[in-house]
Amino acid sequence: MPLIKSISGIRGTIGGKPGETLSPIDIVKFTAAYGTWILQQEHPNKNIVVGRDGRVSGAMVQQLVVSTLNAVGLNVIDAGLSTTPTIEMAVLFEAAAGGIILTASHNPKEWNALKLLNNKGEFLSSEDGQRILEIAANDEYNFVPVDKLGTTTVNDTFLDKHIETVLNYELVDIAAIKARNFKIVVDAINSTGALAVPPLLKKLGVENVIVLNGEVNGKFAHNPEPLPQHLTGLSTEVNKEKADLGIAIDPDVDRLCFVCEDGSFFGEEYTLVAVADYILQHRKGNTVSNMSSTRALKDITLKNGGEYYPSAVGEVNVVNKMKAVDAVIGGEGNGGIIVPDLHYGRDALIGIALFLSLLAKSKKSIKQLRRNYPDYFISKNKIDLGKSVNVQDIFDRIQQKYKNNPSNTDDGLKIEFDKDWVHLRTSNTEPIIRIYAESSFETTADNIARKLMQDIKENI
After folding, report:
1. 157 CB-near residues (< 8 Å, 6+ apart)
2. For 377-459, which CATH class?
3. Quick check: is 23 catalytic?
4. Residue ranges per structural domain of the chain
5. Superfamily for the 3-156 domain
6. pLDDT tens-digit series, residues 315-361
7. From the candidates 8, 23, 105, 235, which is the catalytic residue?
8. From its phi and psi, is residue 309 left (phi > 0), alpha (psi between -120 and 50) or beta?
């Protein structure tokens, strides 16, 4: 299995040869490179916040990361089991020099990763990420003598602080949520969502919470990516319990999707659409999503008097575009919500609180709420890559084939077909090509995706 080194972090499978997997040697090497880069920034303090999701390998990886940071002379604030957005906010709470989140997000249990943060609690810029990769490649790091070793302190309060910050956000209406007396089923996917989502719901006034897969052991009960084909258990339980809705998150709690009261899916693409609709009802402004996300966000934005802007895929790209256009809400169609005046990171907890506020005040069921939004269908597919595939050459040939159609090469290749589109791009986290196609008709989206997948296979 591969070791993926990118500006967004270091990701790989546990077990195997150094340089080919996320081995202990690679963990130490890239942590030392990150620590060296942090020291070069000359931040006022040398504190780094480190936290992890519930993966089986998490404790082992965290021990290596913490010790390595100490060995380069940095102090560690050990948050233990936590969520990605919580660690992002902890960097701000502590005015720390940076942070590391140990999570492979939606990847299966054999994967883990080092997600690297700057002193704003945000993912690194491409320039900073590239610099860390260079430090690692050239062994430009040094370890300090014994009298200059960093220290480690434990702080388990960040998740509570994160939840309190969400509860105090001005558009979160706790009274309205409590008045609706929701019954909610949560699929916590055997990770730290079990520590975050139920306590949040209780403090939002939701007394009737049923938790599936609530043991934090990293032995994921199903594929951890929150997609409909993986959430049949949640859908069944919502029906069985006659619940008002179901909530699913991924293992590090930065992605969010919902199940309607009849067990149908609200649609992960529409998590951002609904939350943006709520925000825009109260604050006029601009929105951003990546170019693989549904056009429904653009429709809702224009309806509310704002402007919509697309970005390249990747949280750092969405954040940069949001800052550039002063967006009031943004995110990604995979269920990632970014509320900029809370923090510039995807955050399922603020997403849940705002969505429930919208749902409660609408006095509608979640199924009725979904009918408020345009119906677009995205067909999401992927093709595994061999080690020697020249992806850019493939994209160039496909672009030439469809040269009479409008196209965009800012992030892979996006081709327009009248009001439909297809987006081809390599993944930042897996050795694959993703093929996303959207249309007003599900069969059309599927057909476009299949056609382009065939084009790719013919050019590999």
Report:
1. none
2. alpha beta
3. no
4. 3-156, 162-370, 377-459
5. Alpha-D-Glucose-1,6-Bisphosphate, subunit A, domain 3 (3.40.120.10)
6. 999 999 999 999 999 999 989 999 999 999 999 999 999 999 999 99
7. 105
8. beta
